[in-house]
Amino acid sequence: MRRAIMVGATAVGLVAALGAGQAALQAATEAQAVQAPKFEVDPMWPKPLPNHWVLGSTIGLGIDSRDHVFIIHRGDSTLNQRTEVGADANPPIGECCRAAPPILEFDPAGNLVKAWGGPGDGYVWPNSNHGITIDDKDNVWIGGNGAGDSHILKFTHDGKFLMQIGTPGQQPNSTDLSHFGRVAKISFDKAANEAFVSDGYGNKRVAVIDVTTGKIKRIWGAYGNVPSDSNLGRYTPGTPLAQQFRNPVHCAEPTTDGLVYVCDRPNDRIQVFRKNGTFVKEKIIAPLTRGDGSVWDIAFSRDPQQKYIYLADGKNEKVYVMDRQSLEVLTAFGDGGRQPGQFFAVHSIATDSKGNLYTTETYEGKRVQKFVYKGIGSVARTQGVPWPSR
Description:
Layout: H1 2-32, E1 34-41, E2 53-54, E3 57-63, E4 69-74, H2 75-78, E5 98-99, E6 103-106, E7 112-116, E8 129-134, E9 140-144, E10 152-155, E11 161-165, E12 183-189, E13 194-199, E14 205-210, E15 216-220, E16 249-254, E17 259-264, E18 269-274, E19 279-284, E20 297-300, E21 308-313, E22 318-323, E23 329-333, E24 346-351, E25 357-361, E26 367-379
Parallel strand pairs: 2-5
Antiparallel strand pairs: 1-26, 3-4, 4-6, 6-7, 8-9, 9-10, 10-11, 12-13, 13-14, 14-15, 16-17, 17-18, 18-19, 20-21, 21-22, 22-23, 24-25, 25-26
């Protein structure tokens, strides 16, 4: 009897200790949670492509006024005819597969609406297309980061050529006001009729152009300095902050309150400017990241204040959710891998009018993903894969 009582008391003590431990763990978890936008990956988006089409490295993403999603990819240069697109080989070596046209348009449900792009009359298609953005009139703009890609192309929503800005095949420098140097992305300020060009893979600057004429109006480098093409060497953690951008300058995103957020990708930093190029502040992200860097692309939440930044980090394979004013990282989701909600070189990011997030992946990632907005709520600071809850 005495032994049974002792065993029972011990069991009660263990249960109590376990309960206390679980309560402490729960309390610690809740203490680490933050209020932030919540997302879940939609593993069924988009729907399968027709015609045995597959995507190559997918290096651009834009949303139009109807929440249609545009992507641009490099099927011509990043798909292997022996192992991936045998039907494109000459002669074909199998029924499957073929590279999809460079630009694809999806509706909100994930249906393919239209596919187009590539060389045509009146313009020079980039050697290596890069970035796609839709302006307020639903026109489509692209850049290019290949050799000789010193120009920008503008098309109608359905792919009719409108304008070529800059002359292809030039060797511009970062103070050239006539051409570009391997543009990463174009973003728009509707009120000012201006476009902000992250220029980019050859040059090391932000260039602001008149949307109607394409004329370059102003330029700047890191900290608002006159841009320089000096070779800074590779980024090394712990060394003094570089006073110029490194290649590539990967995004330049204007906001409704008169600021521009610039992706200085290999320097692991966001730099914030006024629209005239005056430096305001900066934020270092994952400063031990070498190589490709941590700051790849930025999108803003769709509330009137654009309260949140969504930052794609293609080296560490995650998306950061940040407070735009303070630049505090609130939470992050994603992980490296091939499954839905994971990433392999997450490259571009954009939001639709309902707050949903879309991402594309370059290198061997070769896809577009949708993350459904689930409102503001309590989330862990490090979420991992945002898999659907049910």
